[in-house]
Amino acid sequence: MLSTLKQELDNFAPDLFICELGSGSGILSANLHNWLKLKHKTPEIHVSIDISIDASLLSQKYYQHYGLNIEQINASLFNNFNFSIAGGHSKPDIIIFNPPYVPVEQE
Q1: Does residue 26 surpass a pLDDT of 60?
Q2: Which of 43, 52, 62, 67 could form a disulfide with 26 if both were Cys (CB 3.0 to 4.6 A apart)?
Q3: What is residue 54's three-state secondary structure?
Q4: Kind of pairing, strands 71-74 and 94-97?
Q5: Which residues pair with 18 in a beta bridge?
Q6: In whole angstroms, what is the distance from residue 96 CA to residue 94 CA?
Q7: Which phi and psi angles does 5 have, rounded to 5°?
Q8: Spatial contact of 49 and 26, defined as CB atoms under 8 Å apart
Q9: Distance between CA 35 and CA 6 in Å, rounded?
Q10: What's the N-to-C CA distance of the chain in angstroms?
Q11: Hey, what long-range contacts does 27-34 have (CB within 8 A, 24 or more apart)?
């Protein structure tokens, strides 16, 4: 699956708008951002969103520590959230999401 994503990203122009939903620690966005940078396709706009203030602060700290140009937003996508982004982008080109693992009680 990751190799398929990498092949698809090779076809995108470098002015990408990437959005990660549920950023958590920010590691997924950070790794994708760095991989794209190696391919000379640094996203024009890269945002990550999390409803948790703790997760948002952790992501922001992580991005700043490694000098990544990723905007962290603390918000819920279900409460009238819409993108107001410069550069003429009205929606993301790529949305990434790694859902959390939620243990389930054995039946």
Answers
A1: yes
A2: 62
A3: helix
A4: unpaired
A5: 46, 94
A6: 6
A7: -60, -45
A8: no
A9: 9
A10: 31
A11: 27/62, 28/96, 28/98, 29/59, 29/63, 29/68, 29/70, 29/96, 30/62, 30/63, 30/66, 30/68, 30/70, 32/96, 33/68, 33/69, 33/70, 34/68
The pair of structure tokens assigned to 23 is: 């950023």
- Which amino acid belongs to residue 11? N
Instruction: Kindly report, residue by residue over 49-67, the tens digit of the pLDDT.
Output: 999 999 999 999 999 999 9
CA distance 60 to 64: 6
Q: Residue 89 — very low, low, confident or very high, per pLDDT cuts 50/70/90?
A: low
Token reading at 7? 């092949």
Token readout for 82 is: 């819409």
pLDDT above 90 as % of the chain: 27
- CA 85, 89, 18, 41 torsion: positive or negative? negative
